[in-house]
Amino acid sequence: MQRDPATARPWTNWGRTTTAHPARVVAPRDTAEAAEAIRAATRDGLRVRPIGSGHSFSAVASPESGVALDLRHWSGIIHADPSTGLVTAHGGTPLHVLNAELDSLGLAMANLGDIDQQTIAGAISTGTHGTGAGLGGLATQVEALELLLADGSEVRCSATENPELFAAGRLGLGALGVITTVTLRCVPAFTLAAEERPAPLEEVLADFHGLAEAHDHFEFHWFPHSRNAMVKRNDRHPGPPRPLHPVRHFLEYEVMENHLFGAVCGIGRAVPALVRPLNRICAATWSARSYQDRSFRVFTTPRRIRFVETEYAFPRDVVPDVVRELREVAARLADPVMFPVEVRVARADDVWLSTAHGRDTGYIAVHQFLGMPYRHFFDAFEAIARDAGGRPHWGKMHRLDATALSRIYPRFNEFRQVRASVDPGGIFHNSYLDRVLGPVDNPN
Fold it and tell me: Is the pTM of this model over 0.90?
């Protein structure tokens, strides 16, 4: 077992919204070492948080003053059966590593989000999702889990084996135990035809449901102080990949969307009066592009510009009206918004704490460039979300607590009962989980 000698070094998440000072950092090489780290923490009166890439904007992964369980050594595919599509991977496997290994086996995940730096355990545990009216989030692709519990024992769960633990554990916020392995139901590797074109925002909202139903994967981005949106349609294609030329890919994704846009954001942060015209200029310079590539290369894009984010899931029918209301709020802000809003969709699922539980869903993600004021915008969005039946993304910033969340998740109390049964002492808790789940000794 490796212990980080720089135990005083703070832990900070990618969005720099949360910093912690763990008492120690442990990087176990196997489950036996991890189990011993959990037992040692219990003896010392410390809490334990498994940490992956730290890509959540909320404090869900914060180790605070406890033990940070670093899963960097738990990476890679353990077993794969291309005939069934069942693949078992270590919980600490980063998505970009998993995607490459799956592709080498002729397999792929059916849906992905647009960032591939998270670990597979972290991604499913916080409700990471992609987009597609006929597809669910990453947790819906999970067939089985193995977890280390608070007493150091390891347990397997699936729809037929410890089914309640599985129902809770597919999206468990790291509150139930440490996910050691994840078994996914994958699909044969496939090509996506990507089409990205700018369009007036109002036209996109008017045809929102038609676009969602017409394409395998649909989303759009909108700068809050502009009238245009960038619409992205991705559909399965039987032909071979025809990716963008490497030079064009580098210019558009690295130079334009990261370096140049990052410089524009820096100007807006330095001179806020320029944000609104810069927004309109950025929206006006969007250009169309079409290409075909392996699914994981289309789903994911590099994100090198730091930002903060909140995201809410809504009944899909109300999304156009919510965006219109958000547009009115943005027009009145004293502190303008530099980053675009992102809108996606998902089908209803049965995962207990999924933001899409029991209803077809539309997601609205609101961002701000790091270092720029965001609180008034985020608070105004949360007020809209409260009135429109929104559910917050567990890995994004929000202010809701257990009382509020229990009203919007039908299986919330059942989740808390499972949590209390497997971790009665709350060893896997932190302040964020205390807030959103309530105290462990009061599951009802």
Answer: yes
